[in-house]
Please model this.
Amino acid sequence: MSVLAIQSQVIHGHVGNAAACLPLQRQGLEVWAIPAAILAFHPGKLYPGQGGPAPVLTDPSAIDHWAGALATLPHWTKLRGGITGWLGSVAIAEAAGRALIQAKAANPGFHWLCDPVLGDTDTGLYVDPALAAYIGAHLLPHADSATPNRFELEYLTGLKVTGLPSAMAGADALRAKLDPQGPRIVVATSLNRQDGGQGMIEALAVSDDGAWLAAMPDLGEATPKGAGDLFAALFLARLLRGKNVKKAMGFAMAGTYAVLRHAVLNGSPDMLYAAAQEEMRNPAREASIERVR
Model:
C-alpha cells in the first residue's frame, strides 16, 4: 500500500513530511512525498543566535509535473490514500489539490486526509487568509477526513469551541464540508475544553458511526513542534490498515504522546524519531477513550 503526501518538508527536525513519512512507513505504507516547501527547520523553533529557516516554496508547476510523471507509473492505480498539510500558498494548494483529486479518481476507495494547517490558539492564523479560505472552500470538499486543531476548527466553521457540545457541533459542521461520497471523519485535536479534561490533552473524533473523546496527559508547553503532523499520519495509517475510527484515533493519540514524552524526558526541543520509533509503533500507554455519541 502507498500514500501520496504533499506538505512542507524540513531539513532539521520533524514537521510536515519529515514528521509524516516514518510513521506511515513503520505502519507498512510506502510514501510518495512531494514537498510543498523546503525549510531548514520549523519557523517557530527558537535557538540562541539562529537565523530564519530560509524557506523555499515549491513552484506549483513542479508539483503538476511530478504528479503527472507519477501518474504514468503502474503503481499510481495502487495508491490507497493521500495526506495534505501545510501548503504555503494558494497556488501550491491548487496544485496539491489537482494531484490528490487525480489520484483519488484513479483509485476506488482512496482516502484523502486533509490536515488544514492554518494556525493555533497561541499564534492565531499564521497563513495567508486567502490560503485558509481556499483550503476550506476547495480542498476540504474533496477530502474524506480532516484533523484540525481547536483554532482551525473554529476558523473553518465560524463556531466557538469551549466545551464538548460546541466541539461536537464544530466537528459536525466541518464534516458537512467534506466529500459527501466519503466517510466524512473529523478529528478535532488539542481541545483544552472548559467543561472537563483538565490536565489532559484531548481529541474528538466524529463520523457517521458515532463520536469518541480520547485523552492523554498534557505534557505542557515544552512539547516539540510537529505533533499534529505525527498524529495525522498515524491516524491515516491505522485507517488504511483497516482499523475503525475509535481505534485509529486511540492509536494516534498514544503514539504521538509516546514520542512527545520521549522528547520531553530527554530535554529535546525536537521529536527524536530514531530513538523513539519503537514507542511510536508500539506505544506502552493507551489513550483513555469514551463514546460521547
